[in-house]
């Protein structure tokens, strides 16, 4: 059954995400699946993977990279621990707000809570405030926390929707360093998606620690005219200064030229894991 068919079913789709209701990951769920969905909040990214692996939820949605702060490395590392597939991607514009309890003014704020990525994305704005910054596990969860604790000298960075959900006051809008702030999310499942003619594939591989190894590996794609859209290295955690490479390329793994490139890559690598093929997210055409 395709994702589209599931989305048209009568029963809500159960989708795990990291954070609290009102988190950006929850918004990504609605963006991808529509309204016939039941978001399931999880405390940690690993809980999202575990939920899908166990069958507790049908899908999971996790952030994989941000246009300002870069990759969410913890999520990349989890793909080595869990045998899940990427079956879709979502690109969401992130519009951060500074949020506090009702009646609180900006001059009263001494401490600001949010996820480390959100704090990093608003660095210039926060430096002007000269407040204490405290990292938490979630943007919306930070809003929920300062409300539940009745914190009158604290604010949180999260979405406008989070402020609405928890009945909080917005002190400032669009506070990110760059208005073109986007986060890319992966949709997790036990299976990837069938070809659509407009697809991407994500893989992990490692090469021998010898001259030209990476050049030969990437050459398999160049020889076949396959466009690479992302490449990033992460430590293998097995031996110092040896790396796994995370690669996205255009095309579906079942296409002839892609299948040939992957087979050639397998001959030039020590390790290869295909994370999945999936339809490309719509192009960003509303950049500010």
Describe the structure.
By secondary structure, the protein is α/β, with parallel strands linked by helices. It folds into three domains: 3-93 and 181-189, D-Maltodextrin-Binding Protein, domain 2; 97-173, D-Maltodextrin-Binding Protein, domain 2 (3-Layer(aba) Sandwich), CATH 3.40.190.10; 199-279, 2-Layer Sandwich (Alpha-Beta Plaits), CATH 3.30.70.260. The protein is 30% helix and 33% strand. It is built from ten helices and 15 strands. The chain has helices at residues 3-7, 24-33, 45-54, 73-81, 116-121, 123-129, 139-148, 160-165, 213-222, 256-267, and strands spanning 13-18, 37-42, 59-66, 70-71, 85-93, 97-100, 111-114, 132-135, 154-158, 169-173, 182-189, 199-206, 228-235, 243-250, 271-279. Strands 1, 2, 3, 4, 5 and 11 form a six-stranded mixed beta sheet that branches. A hairpin with a 7-residue loop joins strand 13 and strand 14 (243-250). Helix 9 packs antiparallel against helix 10 (256-267). It is globular. The model has no long low-confidence stretch (mean pLDDT 93).
